[in-house]
Amino acid sequence: MKIYIKYMVSARCKLAVKEALKQLGLHFIVVDLGEVEIMETLTSEQRNKLTQALLDSGLELMDDKRAVLIERIKNAIIEMVHHSEETIKTNFSSFISKKLEHDYTYLANLFSEVQGTTIEQFIISHKIERIKELIIYDELNISEIAWKMNYSSVAHLSNQFKKVTGLSPSHFKQLKVKRRSLIEDIGNPEGEN
User: Fold this and answer.
1) Cα–Cα distance between 39 and 188 in angstroms, integer?
2) What burial class does residue 86 get, using C-beta atoms within 10 Å of its C-beta: 0-12 exposed, 13-18 middle, 19+ buried?
3) Above 60 in pLDDT, residue 184?
4) Cα within 13 Å of Cα(163), Cβ side
5) Of the candidates 63, 90, 107, which is a domain's last residue?
6) Positive or negative CA dihedral for 66, 70, 73, 79?
7) What is the rounded distance in angstroms from the CA atom of residue 57 to the CA atom of residue 103?
8) CATH number, position 144
9) DSSP code of 43?
10) pLDDT band at 193, cuts 50/70/90?
11) What is the span of the domain harbouring residue 38?
């Protein structure tokens, strides 16, 4: 039996779900972002207990088919942008359509209707957050980040980053360095080291 869980976006969430299932004596086959397959069929009592256990962990059991599909779209995007170590080289619409086995136009319309924003805007928001992380980690330069995140050029990445954050990637990086140096100066008179 497949069950769908809202707000399940990290490895920590997966552990919380596995623990909740174990405590209820349920056996899972797969625990993935937003989706769990268990061997048993849930009784209404088990469903109620699982619902409460998930709520205690900040998660939510979903029943509405549209809500389930929206959550699966979000999780597919989060998985692709944040959890994949591979370079993003596929078209998001193809990826989402294939992963969810639905026509992309249908998914895009449903997402916009329910979320009040487009899938594209949701993807851009997550890509920008991921780019911020990569800039802060300072392991890749902007050209490498642009390539990893599947931007056609550094200029394309920079323009989109500035449009969303109001800062250029290099200015964002300078603020990070400046902020770090200010934190290091705490407790030292006049910022002396």
Assistant:
1) 60
2) exposed
3) no
4) 10
5) 63
6) negative
7) 33
8) 1.10.10.60
9) P
10) very low
11) 1-63
